[in-house]
What we know:
The complex is a heterodimer. Chain A contains 13 helices and 17 strands.
Amino acid sequence: MAIKNNKKITFPYGGVHPPEGKQTKDMPLERSEPPATVEVLMAQHIGAPAVPVVKRRQEVKKGELIGEAQGFISANIHSPVSGKVKRMENRIHNPTGKPAAAVIIDNDGEDQWAEGCNEEQNVSDMEPQSMIALVRQAGIVGMGGAAFPAHVKLSPPEETPVSDVIINGAECEPMLTCDHRLMLEKTQEIIQATRLIMKIVRAGNGYIGIEKNKPDAIAAFRQELEKNADKNIQLLPLEVSYPQGAEQQLITAITGREVPAGGGLPSHVGCLVHNVATALAIREAIQYKIPLIERPLTVAGTAIKKPGNFYELIGTSIQHILKRQEVEDDMKLLISGGPMMGVAQGQTEVPLLKGNSGILAMRAAEIGEQRACIRCGRCVEACPLRLMPNMISVLCENERWQEAQEEYQVRECKECGCCAYICPANRKIVHMIKWCKAELAAAGA
Amino acid sequence: MSKLLIKSSPHLKDEDTISTIMWSVALALTPAVVMSIYFFRLSAVSIYLNCIIAALISELICLKLRGKPLHHASDGSAFVTGLLTAMILPPGSAYYVGIVAAGFAIAIVKHCFGGLGHNIWNPALAGRVFVQFAYPTEVNLSEWMVPSSLFGNGADAVTQASPLVEQVDSYLELFLGIGVSGSLGETCKLALLIGGLYLIFRKIIDWRVPVYYIGTVFVLTYLLPAKSGLDFSPYYHVLSGGLFIGAFFMATDMVTSPVTPLGRLIFAVGCGILVVVIRLYGGYPEGVAYSILLMNTAVPLIDRYCKPRIYGSKTKQAGSSL
């Protein structure tokens, strides 16, 4: 399926244009000194938490399995360092702010890989099933934020085969630039990863979607793809509009198809979407048997004196990162993730997870007075899912949770934040929607 | 290290607030206000002052009585209501007419229904209709003050019939408001158009509403036969009376108009149909105020039946028609 060059590629409805604030886009990814201790959570993904398979004082090597996945929708956890297990203790799970089981490991600084890790594989005649097994073994999850186990996405049901693989390089969240850096620094590897993923799901078409505010990344891919003369992989410059990189919006922008409402999956419309960082992790798992123990991370914000992009070990304390990059004393807001969907943290002693793409620290933050809805309709216009956030928020204010679901389908909401961003009455629409979903879940509806 | 704030995402916010929106509307009305002061001189100034002061004082009293923060009175919404109320009152009307209209608009139409965001009807229009009933001799639709001209010495006390009853010389004069009698701020269409275009450009109002509203009036007055003696051209219908101020500033009132694009279309076309029916076949020469107030009443119903089709849903939503 060829997409015409002159057509603007974007999702057809809604969206907002927040200030981009991508000041770190020219800062290459750096590898910094590993921390003395890592705190690795067993629940880093959507699905069942892993169960620790190490004991206190046990010696572990880098890449060694320390937490075993429970069931299909779960993910293995590996030690990011070589060293000794100090203890098992609860640590804060940053997306929810709740304590969860973690394995604390003292780094011995030896940097020794576990047996069977970091060995180059012969991929040319590997079967898709073996590749999926390697991805599953490596504990790869979606690194764009959702942290959905990658091997599950790579195993679509037989009745819904994948024809289109979409590599998500939109990075539509303001301030985040680590995917941008990856695309510049690992262009060839991302194309190889795309081919691998296409091979695994036997897809005929590959697309690499990049927002037009990253012209250097687009140029790098264009050059690389021309060199390879690869006709099955197409580079697609996307319009700059938030949330261009949300899975549903990206699928619709590129293929025109809509993922079915009510829990439909991308594979239901023949699509598979992986973020660039996840694609790279998949390639490393298959080609080198490297488990997911580090990730690219943007550290930025007004309260960070030395912002930048870093390869950071999973389980590094955010406190450690903030100290290293020097944080201002008057930091008021600490966000894991991007400014539109990221989660505000109540403390700095929080370990980094596989799904964290940014650490943002701000000097200025306020909640602001919430006024009554003035029915301006901007949220209705901005919602990329064509929900009516105005009505949902008013119903939530009156604790009419069931009605918000039955009449206005609140559960379809992906909490992209366009509605609350645009609201002139400063209404906490996303907050109310999260609350509503929790109430509905508690009521068992 | 200072305390960290815990709040829900998103952590960015668009700059527009209720205040910036309301003061932008006030700014957009400025050209028409200036023209009305030029046309009607001191009479205009006194009506503006009466209405705006009455609106702000009523707002403060209501906020106090309802236990709401008093700083809400400075968000511009009461100011705009006062301003709009003045603009749709007849020039030369007694001082208490403006005070009662603006006070009724704020206290009864806005606050009795729950304050900003909760009112069903456009406060300024409802205030105007209220004084029309309360003071039938003061607010009279058949006698109007003649505006001052470029060479005149100020507003004339002599009255003449509404322009919808008696024709003026040219469409250009009608468009500019020269020699046109009518409510204070409705006569200079050019000034209203400039303000309306500014609001469309600022994305504060939806272009669909004025375009479909005025368009419907044009098409229907072109197609439909009128009572004898009232068979004016469609251009005349579009450029006369309160259609421009109604279409750009009243029918676009966020609180009292639908939120979805389809809903706004239905609302605007409905307003247009009602204006034409009232003007051509009703007892009043003008119907803009009633058309908008009647359609305001239908807004909750329109919103309910114009839900957009949710992403990924094949079949229409219950009660949806888009």
